[in-house]
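Budget justification, computational time. The allocation requested in the original proposal was used primarily to generate structure tokens for proteins on the priority list. As evidence of use, we reproduce two of the resulting records. The first is shown immediately below.
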Amino acid sequence: TILETSQEVLASEVLQLETDTKELNFLILGLDNLLNSAPNVNWQDEEVKILLPRLQPYCQEEKSVKDLVDNLRLTRNIARDIGWEIPTLGAFGLAAWLSENLAVLLPEFKSGLAMAKKAVLIMSETENLRQIYQQSHSKFEQLKKDIHHQGIVSENLQKNLQELESQKSQIDLVVSEVGAWINIGKNRISEELKKCLETGQDFQLDLIGLPENLIKLVNREKSQLLLNYAQPIHSFPDWERLEKALNAESNRGFQNIQGREHRFDNFLQIFLSKPPIVLSEKDYQKWQKFAIEFGFYSQLNQRQRQDLVAKVQHFFNENKSKYSLVWEPDNMSKTLAEVIEKILNQILYHSREILLPMKRGNQKKILKKQEQLEEITQLQEGCRQEREIVEQEGAKLRQKLEQKYQEFLHKLTEIEGQLEFNAGISSLAKQYLEWKPLEVLNDKSNFIEKVNSWENNLNQLEKVAPLLEPFTVLVDIKNILQDKLNTIQEKVDKSQEKLQSCQTEINQIKTSLQQKPSITLIEERKWWKSAWEKIPKNLRLTVPETELFATEILHKIKLQLQNWQQELDTEETYLNRNQKFIQDWIEKIKKPSEKDSNDLRKIYLDNANVIGITCVQAASRSFAEEFNSFDVVIIDEVSKCTPPEILIPALKGKKLVLVGD
């Protein structure tokens, strides 16, 4: 039966090999016809369409075929990016079509690329000119703004100068008016003083005919022409009241006493704030000095207050004796002449103190404004000259820019008409011809990107074009098929030999089966059958009873018996080698020494999972040394244990279980 099965398998193999041989012969013949007609192959022919797909199982893993497919895929993608219309062909037909067309079109591509790169160069030059022109225009606008701003500054300076000149004229007018007033001033002061003495009224400056412009100027400057003297003009301080206040302060220990209306220091300040007009300059200065010191009277200590009060008392006593008779009839003329001279001198002095600084300050401001005006005028003139230069340069740059852009448009017109094979570049050139210049220049990066992409694609096409050789690959495939055919033919010959041998053996067996077996063979078969029955079923091979005497089965059983014999020999060897060790172990167990007992006990305990002991025994020293801890401690009959007994084993357990009533 086994031989017959083998015969069927071999026959099937021979049949399959013969089928493969026919297929290979067909493919090789078809390739010969196709290669003989190269390069004029009709790739749309039905025979070619049938032939090429049938080559795939035999060559799809070959390197030359894979390389051709990869290069073809790359070339097809590039062609689509450029805008070619790709025909519907198989891999070899498309490779042949691309190879033929690339040979013609690559020079055109290079020429078109040179044209596009020239357009990129002109576009870049145009963009550079535009940027330079924009910078020039920005500079022109900035100069324009600067000139306008300088004009405003100049106008403001001129207005300021006019105001300052007006102020100068006003000051000069006041000076001349004061000079004219001096001639009549003394008489006017004398007349007004006499009226004040007769009527007892206060002396006022507006009654002596001072120039009106001088009065306005003094008021505007918040200044004064005459010191703040006591009024009326011939009045004296209340010496008795003053002396009374000073004595009271002294008697009460210089405590800055509080009067009916004022505190002592405030009273003295008020008293000293308006000195009599008849005081000499030296006495007037002391009077003012004491007024200032009494402003800090509250901050002085007792000693300092005492000294200050003593000085004031002495000073007032001197003033009282010195000036008490100045307004008497005998002294009236002299005193009046001195007062008139004092008032006139103070008016003139304070007028000079006000007018001279104003005049000097005004003159300085005028000079400064004139310098600024001259500086801004020069700067403005420089900016105007620079603006004219920038304007002329801008006009030239604009002319160059327009010329360069017209050159770019001319190049775009050439591209639109001559680069129809590159739809991307051609359509973009057409768009640019319709756009405004600024829109085109702003799209410069897009145009450059497309040209660079085209250049990259062209470089790849130049590298790939020589590799698109479909007929060379078909020759390689033919050689591969021929090698496969030779290999299959060898297999056919060998398989036919095996088939013939198998058929011969089957015939011999059939002949032998037709003969009656000998008595010896019958006896041997009986012995073998009984021996087979003695083998345990779990060790037997799974063999049908009809195949028990088959040669192949007998060989397998023989091999199994040999394996069992080897295992038996190995076990016997191991047993014999360890027999002495086992005997010694048995003897030690039967008659152990003290050391052996301890060793055996340690081995036993080391391998024990459960240790049983009473609570009291758990406290022994040997147990404590041998067993440090347990995973679980279980205490039974726990109700009979005292707490100390429970604690001894409980301390050794990671987990404690108590069992009992």
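The second record produced under the same allocation is shown here.
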Amino acid sequence: MPVVTLTTENSIIKDTSIMNWAPTTNNASSVGIGVGINSNGLQRSFLKFDLGLIPNDAIINNATLNLYTSPTVSGRTIEIHKVTSDWIDTSVTWNSAPGFDSSISTTAITGSTVGTMNFNITGLVQTWVNGVSPNYGMALKDSNETGSNNATVFNSTEASSNKPTIIIDYSIPITGKKQVEYVGSSQFIDNDSQITHNLPIPALAKDGDFLVVQFTVTARGYKLPPGWGVWITGLQDGRDHVIAAKFKTSTDVGNVPISTDTAGRLNGYMHIFRNVKQVDGRWSRLINGSSLYFPTSLATTNKNNTMFVLLNSVTAYATFSPPKNYNEAVDSAMVAPYSSNLQCAFGYMHDKRSQNESELTSQSNYSASYGVAGLLVLEPIINNLPTLTLTSPSNNQTLTEGKTLTISGSATDADSGNVVTVKYKIDNGTTYNITASVSNGTTPINFSKTLTYVNNRLYDGSNPVTPILAENVTHTLTVWAEDDQGGKSPDTTRNFTVLYNQPPQISGSDQDLGTITTPPSIQYTVTDVEGYSFTITDAVDGNTIRSFPGTDGKQETLTIPHDMWIKLQPGVTHQLTITATDQYNASSKRTFTFKRAVDGIELATTAILPADAQPTRVILSLNGTIPDGANLNVQVCNNAHDVSPTWEDMSQSVKNGRPYVFTNTTSTSGQWGIRFKISILPGG
């Protein structure tokens, strides 16, 4: 961050006092500027610093006005106001004083000792360099212009020492530049007795930079490579004095060869200027035996925020002093026998559109020198920053599983032809593009992107755009627009939180049912707090009993079908499970363990005894002995092909050794066949 101190040595500073007791008197030559009331009456002062050393539209980090005083009264509040019209320091009086803003820009309070008072004028200087307000300077006044003998007097620019100064700390914007920037120069080149002279392109140069070569050469017939335009040239004292320039491209690397018809000596520089739109004007003038180098008596432009670049060359071992308000970039003298010097100095014009002879004059320390005074007026690229309006999402949303985060709004860019890209990122993560479009300067560029929250991440379609997002903490969505000229809109942010998907809740708790002899019957309900749909799967030892869409809060009953029950191995631990899975695959499980005890025998025929027609009776004989007290149960069906056969109890017929007459006369399958189920259980 450069820090520049504006003084009477390097800047044009104007100041004066006005007094109500001498309303037609001008006081520009006074060594002091006063405020408040003395024995004669009321006085105020005006002060103006030219800001030519400060880039237009720079970021003013701090600006401090320093005024030296020998206070007569301590504790006086001194106000600074922005002046609202122009004034001339050598003619302004109380009667012709300019107006000033009624609002106070800043204040400081007088002390009791001799010294410097410091005024923070950062905001005021920022408005001047941004072009928000013309720089007409400052009005100084006491905050209470009543009473008597309370005046404060500061040293003016006419004082012998301790004159007014401003210390300015500034930065150049990274994006949205609105000023020409002097980047640097090559080393001073001195080539003797050569036909081809190479001027190196500085490593700092970037494509798009405005490259300016400044050289003198003793041999005639100089030639530059294609693409270089000669802006200023003059033959003086046996040498060609040349200013040429071009915008750098990717093919401009290494050196720029400058050739001449015969061998000669070349002294030169290459300068780099950035963010140049065009050369808005040029002036030059041959200098014949003078120490004053000015390119014209009046240089004008019809644009604000230009940079005036003075490019002077002299055929003598001499140095230059630049005019006030100009930064001197180079000033290098070459010693005899081929004495010469090249100077480059530049100033920021802000809202000024002209410079007169005295404002453009560099002073050579050689009284009778010969050379060329040149001036280029460079117009900056004024890139308007894109703007962005975000209409969605709203701030502080909470995302649950499957919910969407829609990013929508519009971007505008006042510069027609700029390519505008809308971008976003989440929590300083990866940057993604939403859309890109060419601005026509007026029509908003609409954009929309929908992200979906799934499995603790945000997805653009099937592509994750975030890592796993922490639950119940604030996450930040940042959206902005960029143009292809380096401009960027302010960031627009929205905060949001996420809640992890909660699996469906199954009532009850895991349980060991112990050793059981009959299939269990378990009642349960399933609920989902987010209201998502879910599926219930009942299983025993991993084998599905049933799987079906669940109903939130509905009571269900879990049991083991007879055919599965009788196949379970006795005496070992089995698992009966209920699993509920929501539509986003979050699931919960309830587990019941048990052992099956066997105190009887159950048999069932798997094969179906075929029948050509409806069986009306059947006889079954059992060979063996049934233990005393045991219960024999025999079930039979004649429609065994049906999905739900009709089972009939023929136990008594078997015990009596007699045929059993079927009562069933229907078959839904249209086929007839016989199956048996036999159980021998303890009596009781």
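A brief technical remark on that second record: The first strand starts at residue 3 and ends at 6.
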